[in-house]
Design a protein that fits this description.
Blueprint lengths: L6 E5 L9 H18 L3 E4 L13 H9 L6 E8 L5 H14 L4 E6 L6 H7 L10 H13 L19 E5 L2 H10 L3 E3 L8 H11 L11 E9 L3 H20 L7 H8 L2 H8 L4 E4 L1 H15 L3 E6 L4 H15 L3 H4 L9
Parallel strand pairs: 1-2, 1-9, 2-3, 3-4, 4-5, 5-6, 6-7, 7-8, 7-9
Protein name: LLM class flavin-dependent oxidoreductase
Organism: Kocuria atrinae
Family: To bacterial alkanal monooxygenase alpha and beta chains.
Length: 343
């Protein structure tokens, strides 16, 4: 029997033309409920700012809302862009979540701003060089979560003693090296930034230093998926998702003619945008499961994080169902943190 790694979901909380963010949050609840029912391990939400179609600007609030409507699935940030925040405030926020929903909260940390430079400097009022403090900010944050504050007389309440699991997110060698040095689990954003996946994972595994958190390395690799009842239907959805990706990246979401999109796809810029989706499992449930198995081996992954791409809630739910069935997910075995055995 083929060994299967845990499957999880990343949710951008997207909303579309003539919709409000509230529609995205309703979809996020529905997706998490479906993922929980089917046996997926966790759902993560990413921090984005000044983005016209993504509602997850504050992952901690989205997590709290979704957690109130689910019962067992792990929920987390994938991630909090730490240079945008005080480590102390993040410890309070995720410590609060852990106290409310014990054993269900994850904290993925990234060093990118999750927005453009102007929004970062003017609206968020954060220094452009804030990412330089990322390593020390992680250490400080983890100290608050352990109850070992670096400042006498100052504790994160809630937060201290919760030991919320921390993950380092990345799409380059930097995050891999940092996660290895700190002895933390590593999540690679290969669903959007695929080129460095294999090299980054190799560096992480080869240089990993055991810590009080982890005795062995743990890799989560993300990729895009679209599953449907027929291969032709999956291909049709895939082509539409690539088109929407191109529109979002180049045209900032505005409408464009087929000719404009075709011209862009034939250009170096269009090929670059399309290459961001290089890791993409498409087809029937069995075909996607086969792709996931090959990807697991290529990425040396201990867990896969799926970005389910489709035009409707129904199509996304169907993708989750087909993949879960073909992968052999078991809802009774999904609860709990899959990294626990390495600690």
């Amino acid at each position: 029997m083929v060994s299967r790694v845990p499957l999880s979901v990343v949710d951008f909380s997207s909303f579309y033309d003539n919709e409000r963010p509230a529609d995205a949050f309703r979809r996020s609840v529905a997706m998490a409920q479906k993922a929980e029912q089917l046996g997926y391990s966790r759902v993560w939400y990413s921090e984005h700012h000044n983005t016209s179609s993504i509602a997850s600007a504050v992952p901690s609030l989205v997590i709290a809302h979704v957690a109130a409507h689910t019962s067992s699935i792990r929920l987390g940030a994938g991630g909090v862009m730490l240079p945008n925040h005080s480590p102390y405030v993040v410890a309070e926020q995720f410590g609060t979540l852990e106290e409310m929903y014990p054993g269900r909260i994850d904290l993925g940390l990234g060093r990118a701003p999750g927005t453009d430079r102007t929004t970062l400097a003017r609206a968020l009022r954060r220094p452009l060089n804030g990412a330089e403090n990322f390593p020390s900010d992680i250490v400080e944050l983890m100290q608050y979560l352990k109850g070992e504050s670096p400042f006498p007389g100052i504790q994160a309440v809630p937060g201290r003693g919760t030991n919320v699991p921390v993950y380092i997110l990345g799409s380059s060698l930097y995050g891999a090296q940092l996660a290895a040095k700190l002895g933390l689990p590593y999540s690679f954003a290969s669903h959007l930034f695929p080129p460095m996946l294999e090299q980054a994972v190799a560096v992480y595994r080869e240089t990993f230093e055991p810590s009080s958190v982890m005795s062995e390395p743990y890799v989560i690799a993300a990729l895009n998926v679209t599953a449907a009842d027929t291969e032709d239907e999956a291909k049709r959805i895939y082509e539409e998702m690539v088109r929407q990706h191109i529109l979002a990246m180049h045209f900032n979401g505005r409408s464009a003619s087929d000719g404009e999109v075709a011209q862009l796809l034939a250009s170096p810029a269009g090929q670059h945008y399309a290459s961001m989706l290089d890791y993409y499992g498409v087809g029937t449930g069995d075909q996607v499961a086969d792709y996931l198995q090959h990807f697991t081996e290529r990425a040396q992954a201990d867990e896969l994080m799926l970005l389910v791409k489709g035009p409707t809630t129904e199509s996304n739910n169907r993708s989750l169902e087909l993949i879960a069935e073909s992968w052999g997910l078991d809802p009774d075995k999904a609860a709990g943190d899959p990294t626990t055995w390495r600690r």
